[in-house]
Amino acid sequence: MTINRTAAPGEDTGPQAAVSSPGVAAALRVSPARWLRASIMATRPRQWPKNLLVFAAPLAGASLGRDDGLGYALLAMFAFGCASAAVYFVNDVADVERDRRHPVKRNRPIASGALPEHHAVVLAVLAALFAVGAGVVIREPLLVATTSAYLCSSFLYSFKLKHVPFVEMLIVASGFVLRVLGGAAATHVKPSVWFLLVCSLGALGVTVAKRYTELTSLGADAVKHRPAMRWYRPGMLRIAQEAIGVGMLATYLMWALGENSAARPWHLASALPLAVAVVRFGVLSARRTVRPVEDLITRDVVMLCCEVAWLALFCVGLYAE
C-alpha cells in the first residue's frame, strides 16, 4: 500500500513512503468487533474439538472418577483450550513472515495483520496463565504438570524443535497424549498402558498424515514453509502412516482383549469400524489437498459413519453386564 497525503499548492512531497507490511493497513482500520473476531480465529476454533480428548480416559474407564468428575473434566478441557490458544498465538507470531508466503496460512489473523503481533503476545501470556492456573485452583498438581509440559514442549517446538526432523512430529503428537493425561489427572481415572499406546499411535498417525499432505500439495515450496520437510519423502511418510495404523489397530485389539468378559465382544467388534476408518483416512490423506487433515476426519461422510459406529459399539461394551 502507498500512503499519500494532500500537498499544499507548490509543495514538494518527495518520494512516497511505501508500507510493505500487510499488518499496517489492517491495524489502521481495526475495530473492537473485528479485533475480537481476529483474536478468536487465531485460537483455531476448528481445532477446539481436540480438547475433547480430556474425556478419553473417563470414557474408556466407564467412570468420571472422583465426585463431580464431569466438572473437573470440563475444567481440564478449558485448561488445554487456553494452553493451545497460547501456543497458536506464539507460533503464529514466530512464523508470521513464513505464513505470509503460504497460500493458505497467509489468511491467518496475525499473518494478515488483522491481529497485531504485540496483542497476540499479551493474549498468549494471559491464556498460558489461565491454563496453568486451572490446575492450581483445584489443587491438582498432575493437571498443572500436563498443561505446563504441553506449553513448554509446544513453545520449544515453535522456536526450535519444529526445524528438527522427526522430533517435530513427535512433539505435535505428544500434544494429543498430554490432553488425555490431563483429563485422567483431573478426574483421577487411571488409564491403561494399552489405552495410552492406542492414543499415542493414533496421534502420531495423524501427524505423519499432516506432513504427507503438506509435502504433496506444496511440492518444492514445502521446504520454504517448513524447513524440516527437506528430510521427508512422500513414500517414506506413506509407509510410516500405514505401519502406525496397523500398530494402532493391534494395540487396540490388545486393549479390547484385556477387558472383562461382558465388554470384550463389543470392544472387539468396535475394532471393525475403527479399521475401516483407518483405511478411509489413508485413502483421503493420499489425495493432494491443502485442506487441514482434521477436516478429513470430521467432514467426510464415510469417516463420520465409521466414527459413530465405533462409538456406539464402544459405549455398549462399557455398560454391558
Unreliable runs, pLDDT <50, ≥5 residues? 1-28
Query: Can you name the CATH architecture of the largest domain?
Result: Orthogonal Bundle
Strand arrangement across the biggest beta sheet: 1-2
Query: Roughly how many Å apart are the termini?
Result: 69 Å
Q: Indicate the CATH class of the largest domain.
A: Mainly Alpha
CATH topology of the largest domain: Tetracycline Repressor, domain 2
Strand content: under 5%
Largest sheet entry: 2 strands, antiparallel
The total of beta strands comes to 2
Write a concise keyword list for the protein shown above.
321 residues; mainly alpha; Tetracycline Repressor, domain 2; 2 domains; two-stranded antiparallel ribbon
Q: Which helices and strands occur, and which strands form pairs?
A:
Blueprint: E1 2-3, E2 17-18, H1 22-28, H2 32-42, H3 56-60, H4 69-94, H5 96-99, H6 109-112, H7 117-137, H8 141-159, H9 167-187, H10 193-218, H11 222-225, H12 234-257, H13 264-285, H14 293-298, H15 301-318
Antiparallel strand pairs: 1-2
Helix pairs in contact: 4-7, 4-8, 4-9, 7-8, 8-9, 9-10, 10-12, 12-13, 13-15
